[in-house]
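Q: What structure does this chain adopt?
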Amino acid sequence: MTTRKALSNELIDSLLLDYKKPEDLIGENGLLKQLTKVLIERALQAEMTEHLGHSLHAPVINASGNARNGKSRKTLKGDFGDLPIEIPRDRHGSFEPQLISKHQTRWTGFDDKIISLYSRGMTVREIQQHIGEMYGTDISSTLISSVTDAVIDEARQWQSRPLDAVYPVVYLDCIHVKVRDSGTVRNKAIYLAIGINMHGEKEVLGLWIAQTEGAKFWLSVVTELKNRGLQDIFIACVDGLKGFPEAIEAVYPLATVQLCIVHMVRNSLNYVGWKKRKEVAADLKRIYAATTSDEAEQRLCEFEDKWDQEFPPIAKSWRNNWSRIIPFFDYPPEIRRIIYTTNAIESVNMSLRKVTKSRGSFPHDDAVTKLFYLALRNISKKWTQPLPDWKPALNRFTIQFEGRMPQQ
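A:
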């Protein structure tokens, strides 16, 4: 490896001779911007010399007689704002610059900055304002759209990628956003599936935009998971949407469907005023904190005796969903903590709501897809550790689902 010689102190001192304030170095006409321009144009001249075989003003020595033919100008957008660059041309038009390609108008990495801002929920107008303030350059809404639209193909590839054969636990939930559709703003449900793989790591399996909610749509979601290679789910945790459990069982007949207890409690408390909410919540906890399903049913009977006259819908709802509530009683505490709630996906939904809160509505479905895909990509970068207590949970799964565990 060649070691480049460090800049001499004398050269640095001469460059900084007139330096008095930060703007002299990093401002609109600062030293760094001037140096960048000079170095790039010198490098392009060096590329031209390599291309032609002779330096500037030297005799033409290539067989074709090709030589320099003036310069063209373009303005690059980047961290230094707008930077005008002169690019040498040759007579034959065969020169292809490597440092700055012919159709390049932005510095490498500038698009990444736009995508990063977009993925954090900034609107097109906010991105324009931010780029203008930070880098002193104006960018059009069309440019931002074209840069972020390039993510759509990547999102579609991600959505269709192959999945593992087995995810012991899968969470399914949705978040609602407003989308303009045929001239009308509609509330649409964005469904997410998050799987816990054999290593105990969370993984977003996909996202789907529901044009019309219902069991038929949910059936298409789980069918897509099956077609992408997901052959078995041990436990599917859902929030209680009507028809969802039946759709899962139609595709994965061996899967256990567990209703989210947190959703059940939350929905129950909607019937209760603030003064009694704490007491009712405590009595509901006695149900799902029971040691066995028999004990839980006894606690439910006690709840009915105490609250049925005042809040009759609560116990009725728990009774109607009882077969979907009690599966987690078959497992020890380390697995119960994983499956009794869809918190693993609720926290994702909370992060998604943060990036959508500044938007009144989305112009179309693709705008939702690209923002959610980018946001999910950021969120999943933080998932570097397996779930707590995963080892004992996996040991239990190995025994409980013997014959269905993949070969390690």
